[in-house]
# Entry
Amino acid sequence: MSLSSREILFKAPVVPVLVIEDANDAVPLAKALVAGGLPVLEITLRSAAAEESIKRIIAEVPDAITGAGTVINAKQMERMAEIGCAFAVSPGHTEGLLKAAKDTGCPLLPGAGTPSEIMNLIDHGYDILKFFPAEQQGGVSMLKAISGPLPQVSFCPTGGVSLSNLADYLALPNIITVGGSWVAPKDAVKAGDWGTITKLAQEATDKVKALRG
Ligand code: 3PG
# Structure
């Protein structure tokens, strides 16, 4: 049985947001992150190698929970469900995207950054959202303010989140987890430095565990 967004994000100390340029990097990168305690992976559709990378990780890294990121329209949503993504993430949302997510049954983490966008998603039945771009939209103080009138919604903030500020986000009651690209720096991926990536992932995992128990 497939997992809901909530169940998936509960398994993620941090969600790595990945841009994979070479599909040959996909499997070692995913294994490096899983080895560092980060099994929930968001592979963004921002590169030509994204779909092939997702397929390879699904086939070869069974311990990973593999999702597609930057899914911005119905066609992409349908395709990601078809190739077996465990979930999809979008920086925002459109009516077409939400309908496709509902039709496919693939869990979607839709993006929102304002109270009206959040209210629209509540109307569509969502209570777990991506808050994007987190730092630019007001970060921790914005999320704290939102929790007053809209306490029923939890967020995964991404965009400018890193090891240095994740504790501030996780201290809020309406944060389920955080996401970011810092655990897989482009240079390390390009160099095939999987040891560094496991170390960064482990560092993030340890910090979240220390904060949350
Ligand atoms: C995302 O798509 O969630 C962001 O691009 C990740 O932002 P970051 O690179 O600032 O972590």
User: Anything to note?
Assistant: Residues 17, 69, 132, 158-161, 179-182 surround 3-phosphoglyceric acid (CB under 6 Å). The longest strand covers residues 14-18.
